[in-house]
Amino acid sequence: MTIRVVVADDQEAVRTGLVLILGSAPDIDVVAEVADGLAAVRAAAEHRPDVVLMDIRMPGIDGIEATRRITGSRPTGTGAGTAAGATQVLVLTTFDLDELVDGALAAGAGGFLLKSVDAARLTDGVRAVARGEGVLAPEVTRRVIRRYAGAPRPSSVQGLERLTARETDVLAGLGRGLSNAELSAELMISEGTTKTHVSRVLAKLGLRSRTQAAIAAQEAGLVRPGP
């Protein structure tokens, strides 16, 4: 399957480099490149890509607001789910400030990488997000884990009581960063059944991405990350 990608970055040289890197992968097709947030939203509506590779600091609306408009993200607990075939957003930025990470993930981004990432990890990240799996830069992952380590935080997640026991197990696995294959092996179910459970978890909790689900699992105390 070919992964259709829109590249959004206001720096022409960076955008050209990203297009070259992604275009060299046999399973990735860059269908559009744009230089601002509004153009990214329009390109996503026009081309219906699998992934938008999104910069944050851009003219007009920034990458976080563009992500929110593309994903149709709603506040936790409103019942919004992930539609099959929906466009995913992978944020790629120079800045790894906590407020940008939180803003991007809250807006529904499926991943957050830094522009220091190498070509192989970038293409792998695009593939993972296209599969509906979360991707975080190692620097960001360490900070997120530290933030949720220790005493459980009051959970803002609504709808946990609607999850079945198996769906709760799936949410806990997402909180540990497990892929569908790893969840299937651990729970001894097929990958197709795992995908169904993941979709139901996202829909019941009103979440847009696996990354949001992972944070929700940590907030709910379903995961006890170590240091």
UniProtKB/TrEMBL annotation:
PROSITE patterns: HTH_LUXR_2, RESPONSE_REGULATORY
Keyword Nucleus (UniProt): no
Keyword list, A-Z: DNA-binding, Phosphoprotein, Transcription, Transcription regulation
Residues modified to 4-aspartylphosphate: 55
Domain Response regulatory: 4-130
The HTH luxR-type domain, residue ranges: 156-221
Keyword Ligase among UniProt keywords: no
Coiled-coil stretches noted in the UniProt entry, renumbered to this chain: none
Protein name stated in the entry: Response regulator transcription factor
